[in-house]
Specification:
Blueprint: H1 20-34, E1 48-49, E2 60-66, E3 72-79, E4 84-93, E5 96-97, E6 101-102, E7 112-117, E8 123-128, E9 142-149, E10 152-153, E11 157-158, E12 169-174, E13 180-184, E14 191-195, E15 197-198, E16 201-202, E17 206-207, E18 217-223, E19 229-235, E20 244-253, E21 256-257, E22 261-262, E23 273-278, E24 284-289, H2 296-300, H3 304-311, E25 320-325, H4 328-336
Antiparallel strand pairs: 1-25, 2-3, 3-4, 4-5, 4-6, 7-8, 8-9, 9-10, 9-11, 12-13, 13-14, 14-17, 15-16, 18-19, 19-20, 20-21, 20-22, 23-24, 24-25
Length: about 325
Amino acid sequence: MRYITFRILLSFLAMVSSCTNQGTETRKGIADRLNHPYQSDSILLRPTKFHPEIVSTKLDKYNTSFSPDGNTMYYTVTSQKLGVTGIAFQKFENARFKQPEFVPFVSADIPMTDVQISPKGDLMLFSTFMDYEGKPEGFNFNIWTSELKNGEWRRPSPMGYPISSAGNEFYPVMINDGSIYFCSDKDGNSDVYKSRLVNGKYQQPIKLPDNINSEGREADAFVARDESYIIFVRVDEPDGFGNSDLYISFRIDGNEWTNPVNMGQEVNSTQIDGSPYVTPNGNYLIFTSNRASEDIKKRAIKNYRDFETVTSSSDNGSLNFYIMNLDLDHYKQAHKD
């Protein structure tokens, strides 16, 4: 979330059947949910911290993406004290997340951020200011990609022209046809752009219309794989609840979108909310927030041991992940109203 630092679970109840085979499938369905990284038998109508102290921890983490099978979670982790920002991942095996690891090409000196995995899972997209031949002059972040070959992420390469500019490009999201959406401040403001993939080549990026790109700052735009909706961030909006809020809009046709609506207090907080991501099955919204419970300071100051406990946990105000059910029909109705 560059604009600050340097910037639902929906479950399906199995139906009881007198048929032995159907009963077996039901039990298997329940087991699958219990052994899944983001599915649950609980229906979460409000954001819930995602795997606290396992995935969401005392460290600042933001920006989510999963492999298509849902078994590997990628994200950005950062330490302002160390001056390090890199891409990490956690695998989900045997009903639990394993310890985090960095992707092979992270650097101690060069920030890498805003990781997203392509719909097919064979390409990793991210943003960094690494130098390359033909790079636009000046200090700017551009979009790079890494291919997955034989189970390993290979040395990344820049997307280059026409995606790269003398401005900063962030939060690249690929849709089913290979086209990408991203955010750029090349025109002096942070806006959302799209570049179509035609015959294997990316076309000149087109800025989304004015009802999406306002006079304020838009960032962190997640677009559904089928391009049916977009969830993005607006910063310091008059109808916002905090520093940054999530908004949603539905695609009408071509480059036309419905007027975006704030996703409401059910999603947004009085603090930072950003980096939206929808899980591969389309049922859950995961996003980043530094929200904290109202009594956290009082809890921390009871005694020094409690202070140490709170500050070394995911309750310490760090950026972390929250998950909830994504009810698209609710927001479609909000557009009609």
